[in-house]
Design a protein that fits this description.
Elements (H helix, E strand, L loop, with lengths): L1 E8 L3 E8 L9 E6 L2 E7 L22 E2 L7 E2 L9 E2 L2 E2 L6 E6 L9 E3 L4 E4 L5 E10 L7 E11 L5 E2 L7 E2 L7 E11 L5 E6 L3 H4 L13 E8 L2 E2 L2 E2 L6 E5 L5 E3 L5 E4 L5 E10 L7 E11 L7
Parallel strand pairs: 6-13, 15-25
Antiparallel strand pairs: 1-2, 1-4, 3-4, 5-8, 7-11, 9-12, 10-11, 12-13, 14-20, 16-17, 16-18, 19-23, 21-24, 22-23, 24-25
Length: 306
């Protein structure tokens, strides 16, 4: 047996030397040594030295297991925005971005009025009270994709019992617009566009326009104009599920109620004492109603109205 020592010196190439060896050696055994900046190749059995093999890139570490990390979704209330601005589900592990979905578990249903976005945001306005069992699933972006699911229970509480909360409506006067009167203030200026006319903008407050002179005649400078406005009477309610629908029976002639706002307006035309029933209906399914009865007196003189 012979021992061949090959030394690879940068810039000089491969330098070899041979010698005898008394111990038994296996043929074609190669030992690679890297020391002091020299690459030593030792070959037994007369085999030729080989070039060094580059080190391979280590494989990336495995992804952490996909898991849902968010707490249980909060409770909600009918007619109120869920979680104020919604509730965001969260996850960790796997490969982002994630996709979210949900479904009702057997024997339950999804909360009416709520939705789950692909980004994991539960939002909306609950429409019906109850306890809802849902299965939430998150899917990652790996190939093949991983997914994990968990079950949640979402409780939606009912609103406060529907009730009319406004005070009794005021009495009125024949020929006078119904309801309390307020003064509105306007900043006005005359404009020649499409013929001379006054262009007015409502003042945010009297103080913001109090320095303007009163409007008299035609003026090219800003002036203050005042108007007396009758607001009518607004019925109000609490509880139930918004929006409300209003109706009234027995109103004095020429008065009417706005179905969506509950505001009574108009100019009474006939004196008398009128028994008025007001009904509000919410948007619950099935809808809930509340009612109240009032007496409205219409007089022929403002001195007689209370």
């Amino acid at each position: 047996q012979t021992l061949e020592l090959a030394v690879y010196w940068p810039g000089a190439g491969l330098v070899t030397t041979t010698g005898s060896r008394s111990s038994q050696m296996k043929s074609s055994l190669t030992l690679l040594l890297l020391a002091c900046g020299l690459l030593l190749l030792v070959s037994c059995g007369g085999g030729s030295a080989s070039s060094p093999t580059p080190a391979s890139t280590p494989p990336p570490p495995p992804l952490a297991s996909l898991a849902i990390t968010s707490a249980a979704p909060p409770s909600g209330k009918t007619g109120s925005a869920y979680g104020d601005s919604g509730f965001l589900l969260t996850a960790s592990g796997g490969l982002a971005p994630y996709q979210w979905k949900w479904e009702a578990t057997s024997g339950s249903s999804l909360p009416r009025g709520l939705s789950l976005s692909p980004e994991g945001l539960i939002s909306g306005t609950p429409e019906m009270a109850g306890t809802y069992a849902v299965t939430v699933t998150v899917i990652d972006a790996a190939s093949p994709a991983s997914q994990v699911s968990t079950n949640y229970s979402i409780t939606i509480a009912g609103s406060v019992t529907l009730a009319i909360t406004s005070d009794a409506p005021p009495n009125g006067t024949v020929g006078v617009e119904y309801g309390p009167m307020v003064t509105q203030y306007f900043s006005c200026v005359w404009s020649p566009v499409l013929g001379w006319h006054m262009v007015c903008t409502e003042c945010p407050s009297y103080a913001s326009c109090s320095s303007l002179p009163p409007c008299r005649g035609i003026s090219l400078t800003r002036c203050l104009r005042t108007e007396q406005v009758f607001l009518g009477f607004m019925f109000t309610a609490v509880g139930g599920v918004l929006p409300y629908t209003w109706r009234a029976s027995g109103l004095p002639p020429q008065l009417e109620i706005d179905p969506s706002r509950g505001n009574v307006t108009g100019t009474p035309s006939t004196a008398g004492s009128y028994s008025v029933m007001v009904v509000v209906t919410d948007s619950e399914s099935p809808p809930v109603q509340a009612s109240a009865t009032y007496v409205i007196d219409i007089t022929t003189s403002s001195l007689e109205a209370h």
